[in-house]
Amino acid sequence: MTETDQPEQDSFLPKFVSTPLRSGHGMKIGIFAGIHGDEEAGTLATEELIAWAAGKPEELHDYELHFFPVCNPTGCHLGTRHSHSGLDLNREFWCGSIEPEVVFLEAELRRERYDGIISLHSDDTSDGCYGFVSGALLSEHLLEPALQAASEFLPRNEQHIIDGFPALRGIIKEGYLGILSAPPEQRPHALEIVFETPALAPMDAQVKATVAAVKRILAEYRELQAYAANL
C-alpha cells in the first residue's frame, strides 16, 4: 500500500494505492469519498477498506485499488457540504473548474483511466440505501447485489422517486451534471456507481453497509469480467 497527497492550501488530499499481486495485471478501481465534507460515513468506510486492502486478502489479488478518502479536505475540516470556497465540488467536474481539488482529481481521473469508479455518499433526506449507475452497462448489475449486501445493516430505499429522480428498488439511472466521473472522452467508458447511505442512520451502520456494498461490487465485478472473457 502506497500513499501520495496533493497540497491544497492548509490541507491535503490523500490517495492510497493497493497494488495487485502481479504488477500491471490488475483491474483498476477508484474509490472516492468525502467530496461533500459533511458526509463522514464514506470517509470512515474508505479507511476501513484501506486497512482491509493493506492485508493483501486473496480476493484482491487481481485488483489495483486507488482510495481517495477525503476529496474535499476543507469541507471535511469545516463539517460542511461545500468546500471553503462555498462551492459544491460535486457539480464542478468537466466544466473548466479552477477549484484546486477538482483540478487535482480531474488530472488523476485522466491519468489513471479507471476501469471503474465508486463514489461514496450519504443523504439526509433518504430513509434507506440507494445508488446511481452510469457508464458501462455492468454498473446496474453490480449495484443490485451491493444493495442486497448493505441491507444486512440498513434498509434499501424503495421509493419510486429518490432525490428527484425516478428509481427502481433503489437504483437510479439518471444523475446530476458535474459530478465526479470518468473523463468524457475516455473509451471504453468506466463503470460508475454512486452509493448512498441514509445520513440520519447510526454512523456505525452506515459504515458497515458501505464497506459491505463496496466489497460486493468488487466480487461481482470480477465474476462478470471472468464471464465476459469466456464468451
From TrEMBL:
Q: Which cofactor does it need?
A: Zn(2+)
Peptidase M14 domain mapped to chain residues = 1-231
Known InterPro entries for this protein? AstE_AspA_cat, Peptidase_M14
Output the Pfam families linked to this UniProt entry.
AstE_AspA_cat
- Keywords noted in UniProt: Hydrolase, Metal-binding, Zinc
Matching entries from SUPFAM superfamilies are given as:
Zn-dependent exopeptidases
- To which protein family does this belong? Belongs to the peptidase M14 family.
Q: What is this protein called?
A: Succinylglutamate desuccinylase/aspartoacylase family protein
Q: Which organism is it from?
A: Prosthecobacter fluviatilis
